[in-house]
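Workshop exercise sheet. Pairs work together: one partner reads the sequence aloud, the other fills in the structure field after running the prediction. Swap roles for the next sheet.
Pair: D.N. / O.F.
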Amino acid sequence: MGHLTKNDETRIVKLIEEWSGPKLTWPLLVEDCKTKLSINRARQSLMKLPAVHLAMKVRKAALKAPTEKPGWIKDIQQANERIEKLAEANQKLKAVNQQLLARFLTWQANADMHGVSQTMLDRPLVQFRK
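Structure field:
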């Protein structure tokens, strides 16, 4: 049976990281190590490997985390309506951005024609106290 090599340990960690089942337990890992990696070790032996133990903790936490992101809509009709509204809002923002860009170019040209330097433009505004 021999000791596990660093390569074996890496293969076990990779197996854990790529775990696609809904549940991950030590007995399931032991079984997968036997069948997929031809590594026959007891749960306690695997648990003693720090990298394997850490990979198990991380993967189990990831499997328990909610898969649905907050704000996601399950109903396709609602999702399509939301996409339409967001697309409209996006178009409006693009138009406003174009207007602001045109205004900036005008200001930039005027500042250059009247000798206003970049340093003068970058000065902070004076804060007046009431």
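Discussion prompt: The mean pLDDT is 90. What would you look at next?
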